[in-house]
Amino acid sequence: MATETQERIQTLVQNNKIMVFMKGNKLMPQCGFSNNVVQILNVLGVPFETCDVLEDYEIRQGIKEFSNWPTIPQVYINGEFVGGSDILIELYQNGQLREMVEVALAS
């Protein structure tokens, strides 16, 4: 991955408490997995930002290397990689996601 791409990803992750790299955006998700993540975060009522990987090939490929995770969407909370759609669903169902976002937003 190019240094410039890595720096762009790092900046997005550091500057947003909850950052989602996804297909589409929070107003118009472009795949079911991305939609799952958006719906969960909307139910929690928390602010989050998105980056549409379909609009930027370098980010789309770079984020997979950055996180060492092969699939999209990817969710970062408080600068740390949390996972994708399946992991977010599990964390939401067991109550851990609410705790994670509350801690992130309070810091």
Features:
107 residues; alpha+beta; Glutaredoxin; 4-stranded mixed β-sheet; globular
Structural notes for this entry:
With 107 residues, this protein is an alpha+beta fold. It has one domain (3-101): Glutaredoxin (3-Layer(aba) Sandwich), CATH 3.40.30.10. The chain has helices at 3-15, 32-44, 57-67, 85-93, 96-106, and strands at residues 18-22, 24-25, 28-29, 49-52, 74-77, 80-83. The strands form two sheets. A four-stranded mixed beta sheet has the order 4-1-5-6. Strands 2-3 form a two-stranded antiparallel sheet. β2 (24-25) and β3 (28-29) form a beta hairpin. α2 runs parallel beside α4. It is globular. The model has no long low-confidence stretch (mean pLDDT 96).
Could you report the average pLDDT, rounded to the nearest whole number?
Answer: 96
CATH architecture: 3-Layer(aba) Sandwich
CATH T-level fold name = Glutaredoxin
Principal-axes shape call: globular
Number of domains: 1
> What is the name of the CATH class?
Alpha Beta
N-end to C-end Cα span: 31 Å
Which bin fits the share of residues in helices? 40-55%
Task: State the total count of DSSP E strands.
Answer: 6
What name goes with the CATH superfamily?
Glutaredoxin
* Poorly predicted regions: none
Fraction in beta strands: 15-25%
Biggest sheet layout: 4 strands, mixed
- In the sheet with the most strands, the strands line up as 4-1-5-6
Order of helices and strands: HEEEHEHEEHH
